[in-house]
Amino acid sequence: GAVVSQHPSRVICKSGTSVKIECRSLDFQATTMFWYRQFPKQSLMLMATSNEGSKATYEQGVEKDKFLINHASLTLSTLTVTSAHPEDSSFYICSARNIIGNQPQHFGDGTRLSIL
Amino acid sequence: RKEVEQDPGPFNVPEGATVAFNCTYSNSASQSFFWYRQDCRKEPKLLMSVYSSGNEDGRFTAQLNRASQYISLLIRDSKLSDSATYLCVFGPDSGGYNKLIFGAGTRLAVHP
């Protein structure tokens, strides 16, 4: 079964709305979670690395005030797209690393965001 | 030069065919290598890691060529269910625990 849960799976909203996406690790603790974005027919691009209890690390070109990340617990990270516009429409995917052991990242099932 | 380059395809093959994909990477410091599979409008799922000595998992064989900086994926006896986009993925650390660099994917369509 899924080990990383992402919610919601689909969002359609008006321009100017802020949208919050949750990423939860279900049966493990994750000090680090990653947020990716994928536009159609393009590769997943890392937006930011979310660290529990500290500020997220953003990739070059990603506006931290636009994409707010909060990683308040070892099982939950949230990404808020503030004042979303049509160009923010994309597939957002999170992944999480288990704090224990040498295990690969587990991906959530993604959130498809459509801004009208 | 792009960090990762893959032929986007699509590769249209009949059931039972053998098909191979290559993927080149530009960062010679890459330490971990993977093939992921992504179905339409779904999240990527790890297919297999790629090791220096090459590795096999059932019908799937992965190879790494560090000198030429590419990885390959061979699929034997293709099934309809193999139809998907195959992403090559690289990481700066040996376990792929941190930042992963994704290729845009190669589309495979297996037909009856």
Strand count of chain A: 11
**Kindly state the mean pLDDT of chain B as a whole number?**
91
- Counting DSSP H or I runs of 4 or more residues, the number of helices of chain A is 0
Structural class of chain A: mainly beta
Largest interface: A-B, 22 and 22 residues
Order of helices and strands of chain B: EEEEEEEEEEE
What multimeric state do the chains show?
Answer: heterodimer
Give the % helix of chain A: under 10%
Notes on the structure:
The complex is a heterodimer of chains A (116) and B (112). By secondary structure, chain A is mostly beta strands. Chain A is 0% helix and 51% strand. In chain A, the strands form two sheets. In chain A, strands 2, 4, 5, 6, 9, 10 and 11 form a seven-stranded mixed β-sheet that branches. Chain A has a four-stranded antiparallel β-sheet with strand order 1-3-8-7, with no helix packed on it. By secondary structure, chain B is mainly β. In chain B, strand 4 and strand 5 form a beta hairpin. At the A-B interface, strand 4, strand 5 and strand 9 of A face strand 5 and strand 10 of B.
